[in-house]
Amino acid sequence: MALSRVLHLYAASVAALLLFSWVNFIQSPSDVFGPVALLEPTPSAARDFGGVASDAPLAVLRPRSAADVAQLLTALSSAATPRAAVAARGAGHSLHGQAQARDGIVVETRALPRAVDVVADGGVPYADVGGGAMWAEVLEECLKAGLAPVSWTDYLYLTVGGTLSNGGISGQAFKHGPQISNVLQLEVVTGTCSIFLPPCLALKSYFFVAIVEEESSEDTVRWVRTFYDSFRTFTEDQELLVSMPELVDYVEGFVVLDKQSLHSSSISFPAEVNFSPDFDSGRKVYYCIEFAVHDFQQQGGSPADHVVELVSARLSYLRPHVYSVEVSYFDFLNRVRMEEESLRSRGLWDVPHPWLNVFVPKHGVERFKDLLMDTISPGEFEGPILVYPLLTDRWSGNTSAVVPSTPDGVMYIFSVLRSTDPARCDSACVEVIMEQHRRLADEACRDGGGIGAKQYLARQQSPAHWLEHFGSSWDRFVARKAQFDPMHVLGPGQGIFPKTDSASSI
């Protein structure tokens, strides 16, 4: 007991040094919180994929376990004020500085153990996964056991903790819900220094290890694309597809702006696409649906090829423009990797990405599409614009994710995934794009005459915007913050709560 008390007091004294004498502390990275060493910050700790925000921390923690994080937070909570804020950083794919901590501490979760323990004996198969593991690593380990998680993100080189803290969506979400809805259990470290197993929470206010539900996987996927010149027909066919979860396993769609857009979207699709529409007549744009049927889902039923024929026959695409190819399960899930390599080769990966992601209720999709297209010049736009339906009943009301209220239970994700070329778009140009996005989001999300949309993966402009975003869920969210992070230590990059020295100020 005496030794424990000495260690605790030592940790508290180091915390005081950290908080009141940063410069001296950083010059001695061997100083520790008990056994937990804080290191000098790296440039990456002040950067993210969005490339539009940069707030440097004063220290970095590379934890070896959740207990290391808990010990850090214990030291901070034991110290005199002011307290340093703490942010979790995984693969660094936040868009607006959400994983940054100005003058605080960034916890690099990739340093956590990345072991993926797959359990397939008895009951529901699952994987026990560290929050710092990437989904690509999870997939590789699970496939060795003939299993895979049921819900994914399009890009696999993101951390488990990063995507679960935001929800995590891809074309499987209509069927299985977002990734966070497929987690059986979480180990969480909160701002009160506790490690416990909570209901699923979001918005990066926690550090966790996940136990993810899985399903059997086999070798191949039948991957299909169909093309449209009518937005309404495009969305009607998507809704038809998501109404057939017993046959279809994945549904997404995207806007085809011009020839470059068509070429970029075809990089990962390993089949020849003989679609050469007229893009020059009155700014005409086209649309593409892609859906997939997994062979392993058809065990005991029709072969995947036959299912694709049956499903395609019910669609109203521009005939004869349906294209189908068989690929391995891994290659299908890892399809965005080829697009990443293409962007890297063109110098368009490590550039600002002023993205916009919005959940739009079904009744507002055409209006939102029109508002969005008014902000886009096809010849100057680089990147995909994804549009596909999700079902609101697949989202747990117990998370902090906010989805639109829609009586028919259908919403669409609009993801404007732009890469800016520094040779053509400087920082002022990027700010113009972001301002366009802010105005568009305000119009779509505002109370009253708006569409009733909700932003996804966004950092809101002000506390008033956050209050409007959460709506009736705000009081519950504030109560959870008061319970689990009363000093507002965690997640400063979200910009929701100012840091405080007293729980009573919430």
TrEMBL record:
A Pfam family matched in the record: Cytokin-bind
Biological process (GO), any one: cytokinin metabolic process
InterPro entries noted in UniProt: Cytok_DH_C_sf (IPR016170), Cytokinin_DH_FAD/cytokin-bd (IPR015345), FAD-bd_PCMH (IPR016166), FAD-bd_PCMH-like_sf (IPR036318), FAD-bd_PCMH_sub1 (IPR016167), FAD-bd_PCMH_sub2 (IPR016169), FAD-linked_Oxase-like_C (IPR016164), FAD-linked_Oxidoreductases_BP (IPR050432)
EC number: 1.5.99.12
Subunit structure: Monomer.
All copies of domain FAD-binding PCMH-type, residue ranges: 53-230
Coiled coil: none
Keyword Oxidoreductase in annotation: yes
Protein keywords: FAD, Flavoprotein, Oxidoreductase
Membrane-spanning intervals of the chain: none
The protein, known as: cytokinin dehydrogenase
